[in-house]
Amino acid sequence: METIVFSLLNGMIYGLLLFMLSSGLTLIFSMMGILNFAHASFYMLGAYFAYTIMGVTNFWLALFLAPVLAGGVGMLVERWGLRRVHVNGHVAELLFTFGLAYLIDEVVRIIWGRNAVNYKVPEALDFTLFTLYGSNYPAYRIFILFVAVFMLVSLWYLLKRTRIGLIIQAALTHPHMVGHLGHNVPLVFMSVFGAGCALAGLAGVIGGNYFITDPAMAVQMGPIVFVVVVVGGLGSLEGAFLAAMLIGILQTSAVSINASFSDIFGFLGLTASSELGRITVAQLAPTLPFLLLVLVLIARPRGLMGEREV
After folding, report:
1. Rounded to whole angstroms, how far apart are CA atoms 135 and 188?
2. Burial (CB count <10 Å: 0-12, 13-18, 19+), residue 263
3. Distance of alpha carbon 51 from alpha carbon 39, whole angstroms
4. Rounded distance between C-alpha atoms, residue 302 and residue 239, angstroms
5. CB-based burial label for 87 (10 Å; 0-12, 13-18, 19+)
6. Measured distance CA(2)–CA(254) in Å, rounded
């Protein structure tokens, strides 16, 4: 029971962090049709911006300023980069964002170095919130939960229940009509791209000290973000949330299972080869999200909650 409870708790926290990171990519794709390969790089920028700001002020100011700075960089990228290559089609956009990811990685290495920085959990949140089964549970993980839930509710309300959300969605399908009504459509697109990058930056502020802040963090989180978005359904915010929670709980639970394939096959009355029998479920945990991706693409290519375009 202890293993189950902690696996669910940690899996839920990890899933919410994945959703915070993937929601920005989902927002950009659903509103603009751009699959941003550099999205995880803005996650990294958020962590490094927060680390730098914390060295001058405090974590709470960094929690606000770092996503704003990451969003500002994203707006500049859209205005002076993506907007110019957009006329050449989606392939040009993908190549542009792919090169942008490498550019941001090199800039981070030049400014902050190649080693991990000492970005720690703030002292105000570095304490035990409760004790369960004799183990202490840190307050910072619950803080991640509240931030992620607040972001989810705010984003849903903004897009579904406000005039700004209606303008954003209308600008995607009928940009000329929205322009004739007096709205600045290019500014809307630039703001959406900046907001998506800011959400990635917010995930970096929260996750940078939860994991580790180093130049490899974008490469480590980038593939899993695309898994979440594709499994949930391209452009579906609800699907991204469902997929993030599923992958978070699945991967975290698998890490705590030390049973080997010999044990599993023996329980089923089968025999496994010596090479396969030595492999444990915990060793396969990092590959489970990608296995889920393959299965979803085979059985349901549009994702869990995606809608296939006609």
Report:
1. 48
2. middle
3. 19
4. 11
5. exposed
6. 15
What is d(CA 2, CA 224) in angstroms, rounded to the nearest whole number?
Answer: 27
Hey, where are the domains in the chain?
2-215
Q: Which residue has 């609800």 as its token pair?
A: 238
Output the 3-class SS for the chain.
CHHHHHHHHHHHHHHHHHHHHHHHHHHHHHHHCCCCCCHHHHHHHHHHHHHHHHCCCCHHHHHHHHHHHHHHHHHHHHHHHHHHHHHHCHHHHHHHHHHHHHHHHHHHHHHHCCCCCCCCCCHHHCCEEEEECCEEEEHHHHHHHHHHHHHHHHHHHHHHHCHHHHHHHHHHHCHHHHHHCCCCHHHHHHHHHHHHHHHHHHHHHHHHCCCCCCCCHHHHHHHHHHHHHHHHCCCCHHHHHHHHHHHHHHHHHHHCCCCEHHHHHHHCCCCCCHHHHCCEHHHHHHHHHHHHHHHHHHHCCCCCCCCCCC
| pLDDT tens series, the chain, 310 aa | 777 787 888 889 999 999 988 888 888 887 777 878 899 999 999 999 999 999 999 999 999 999 999 999 999 999 999 888 887 888 888 899 999 999 999 999 999 999 999 999 998 898 888 887 777 888 998 899 899 889 888 888 887 788 877 777 777 667 778 788 788 888 888 988 999 999 999 999 999 998 899 999 999 998 899 899 989 987 788 888 999 999 999 988 888 777 776 766 666 666 656 666 677 778 888 888 999 999 998 988 888 887 655 4
Q: Please choose, from the candidates 148, 168, 171, the residue with its C-alpha nearest in 3D space to the C-alpha of residue 158.
A: 168
Of 77, 230, 92, which is closest to residue 222 (Cα–Cα)? 230
Q: Round to whole Å and give the CA distance between 111 and 124.
A: 28
